[in-house]
Amino acid sequence: MKLSSLAALIFSLALPTLAQADWAKTENEASGQTVYFNAWGGGEAINAYIAWAAREVKARYGVEVKHVKVTDTAEVVKRVQTELAAGRKTDGSVDLMWVNGENFRNLKQANLLFGPWAERLPNWGLVDLNKPVRSDFSVPTQGFEAPWGTAQLTFIADRAKTPVPPRSATELLTFAQSNAGRVSYPKPPDFHGTTFVKQLLLELTPQRAALQQPVNREAFASATQPLWAYLDQLHAHLWRNGKTFPASAAEMHRMLADGELKLSLTFNPNEAANLIASKQLPPSAYSFGWRGGTIGNVHFVAIPVNAKARAGAQVLANFLLSAEAQARKADSSVWGDGSVLDLAKIPAPLQAAMRARPSGALVEAVPTLAEPHASWVEALETEWLKRYGSR
């Protein structure tokens, strides 16, 4: 064997040992740190899950986790920008943040993220690389954020009232015409409302490939023309004639339960099961998707470049990627959020638990449609508000 080949072999064999030593150093540095985890605080089940993870990380690694409950991740992005502009380069108030889409793109473009670090986590080896874990709304992650969970647009109906649901944009229009005032969607820029608009765009535009590229005026005008024509027809048959819209998916769930609406929507395929279990929806509620697929994505956690507890943030992110934490998160009685792990790489008992689907959850196989490039979000919301927001 040539000397250079022997040296390469020795180096490759040493890599796991070096990685283990580096991670042990990270864990030692993390002990005693306080991680301020900025994450959406609008869901009781999610808040309870984060509280559980915080207790586990404190007990196992000596890392204190403070859940900073936010309503809009864009505000966290602005806070990071403001702190750096004020000279806070190493003692920022945000150590880890729940993020994806246009917020990640804005952070990355402005060099506001620490990294790359995500693919160095020990539990990265459990991640299912067939999922879009290296791309966030068509923006390469490049190790600047670690995947946390998966989501897919899912519709909810009551089988007692709607045994045959609409399974495409065309069928939804026909359904709305036959059920005047009983269909709606959240008002953008509410996340679920914007996602619904993106779903329609993906199905209706003949230029789907253009959606994976950064938006420009010409492409936007051409690709969205069928969307606005469709919405002009649909809105006339919506709840309150499309002149006002529910504020959120949670409001739609209540309206579905009350019989005011015939359909609701969610970005969590297990949410209907949770709502049934908590008696917010009747046992006859069920989840369904559209025949051609529904929009889906991965959500992530990221570390701002000025984070004070970088080591602690990585330890928390690594725990959130563990088989134990992912299995608990996927349990619909806990949260019901989809896993980013390759189930073949985790213990069999956890595999079985993660494959379980309770009554009301999405059980059918629905193709996942890729998110448009993150730059389309603001453009769509701005144009939607211009056309329909002031009615």
Largest sheet report: 6 strands, mixed
Number of helices: 13
The H-and-E topology, N to C, reads as HEHEHEHEEEEHHHHEHEEHHHEH
**Sheet/helix structural class:** alpha/beta
Strand runs, count: 11
Kindly estimate the percentage of residues that lie in beta strands according to DSSP.
5-15%
Alpha carbon gyration radius: 22 Å
Relative helix content = 40-55%
Uncertain ranges: 9-15
Mean pLDDT: 92
Distance between the termini: 77 Å
| Mass-distribution shape | globular
Task: Describe this entry's structure for a reader.
The longest helix has 28 residues, at 3-30. Helix 6 crosses helix 7. Mean pLDDT is 92; it is low at 9-15. The protein has helices spanning 3-30, 44-61, 73-85, 102-109, 169-178, 191-204, 217-235, 249-258, 271-277, 310-320, 323-330, 348-355, 375-388; strands spanning 34-40, 64-70, 96-99, 135-136, 139-140, 145-152, 154-158, 264-266, 285-288, 294-302, 368-370. The radius of gyration is 22 Å and the shape is globular. The N and C termini lie far apart (77 Å). The protein contains 13 helices and eleven strands. With 391 residues, it is an alpha/beta fold. The strands form three sheets. Strands 1, 2, 3, 6, 10 and 11 form a six-stranded mixed beta sheet that branches. Strands 8-7-9 form a three-stranded antiparallel beta sheet. A two-stranded antiparallel ribbon has the order 4-5. Helix content is 43%, strand content 14%.
List the SSEs and their pairings.
Blueprint: H1 3-30, E1 34-40, H2 44-61, E2 64-70, H3 73-85, E3 96-99, H4 102-109, E4 135-136, E5 139-140, E6 145-152, E7 154-158, H5 169-178, H6 191-204, H7 217-235, H8 249-258, E8 264-266, H9 271-277, E9 285-288, E10 294-302, H10 310-320, H11 323-330, H12 348-355, E11 368-370, H13 375-388
Parallel strand pairs: 1-2, 1-3, 10-11
Antiparallel strand pairs: 3-10, 4-5, 6-10, 7-8, 7-9
Helix pairs in contact: 1-10, 2-10, 6-7, 11-12
